[in-house]
Amino acid sequence: MRLVVDLNRCQSYGQCVYAAPTVFRFHGEESLEYDYAPGDGVRREVERAAAACPVQAITLSGATEPAPVAPVAPVACGDDR
Fold it and tell me: Which residues have CB under 8 Å from 60's CB, separation 6+?
């Protein structure tokens, strides 16, 4: 899992720190630090942190499971005259 925080958008509300304190922390009064590649064991907490961010500054990528692929029905080609 890869984690990106848009620090220009972040307003230091700290909701992410409360949701995932092992991943997010404040350095000083308003400077956010975070683990950009947290382990899958904290995925749920990181997802909660991203959802709790009031300015939606947190982005996750790298799913643990591939997205399901829907089967495609065969299409008949030809002239229907």
Answer: 1, 2, 3, 46, 47, 50
Retrieve residue 7's tokens.
């620090």
The residue to which tokens 């959802």 are assigned: 51
Are residues 53 and 15 in contact, defined by beta-carbon separation less than 8 angstroms? yes
Q: Which amino acid is at 65?
A: E
Q: Has residue 2 got a pLDDT over 60?
A: yes
- How confident is the model at residue 22, as a pLDDT? 96
State the distance between the two ends of the chain, measured CA to CA, in whole angstroms. 54
CA distances to 15, 42, 67, 81 from 61, in Å: 20, 14, 13, 50
What's the whole-model pTM score?
0.71
